[in-house]
Input
Amino acid sequence: MDLKLKGKTAFISGSTAGIGFATAKALAKEGANIIINGRSKNSVTDAVKRLEKEVPSGLVSGVEADFSYKKEVDNLLKKLPEVDILINNVGIYKSQSFFETTDDDWQQQIEVNVMSGVSLSRYFLPKMLKQNWGRILFISSECATLVPEDLIAYSTSKAAMLALSRGLAQLTKGSGVTVNAIVPGSTLTEGAEEFLKMTAEKEGKSKDLVSADFFKKVRTSSLLQRFASVDEVANTIAYYTSPLSAATNGAVIKVDGGSIGGIL
Output
């Protein structure tokens, strides 16, 4: 299927690895111009080279910025060109008890996970409205609803993204701009791979067995009963960046393997 993205420019925050990189690859294959983002120059350079190798026909550039620091965000906005597609993907988390989570921990996760999208959307949404076309996507998480006990701050930030996404969508009424939120479930990112490897070594089990146990004992609500691949999530994201998705606005799109449940 041709997603009609040739010539569109997409900026993806936090895209040197995981879902962000897989999304960059999916959009590059569709002919979009890709701007990779990461916290360091080295990580961005490596990701750009990797993407150019995997999609030789792609038009790829990169810019570093750590969304923990307002000065770096301000500098980023000065460097970025006009974009047609904004994907607010960057995110951080700390797995810890609520009672051990400090105000600084809360602030950092809100700053990176939520305020990054606020800053980028505030900058790009007026430009999209002026040209009467654009796509903004927020990459949330199943944790916004499931709220694991060791991820309360992270889950709160991901839930806030859903409200932010819906609110911005209401500003696009009658235009060719849409704003939606994607809610991935348990996904086999590099971080998840490392978790499975470390747990397998610690417990003397195979990675496959540790993965299976995760869904039997932890993410029991999953209907998929396995980790989604980053490409499976990215393919869904790619569609909602497309002109073909024009009738979807202000929505929460689940790519959660059925873990959240419910009919809405």
Notes: Residues 237 and 255 are 9 Å apart (CA to CA). The chain has a mean pLDDT of 97.
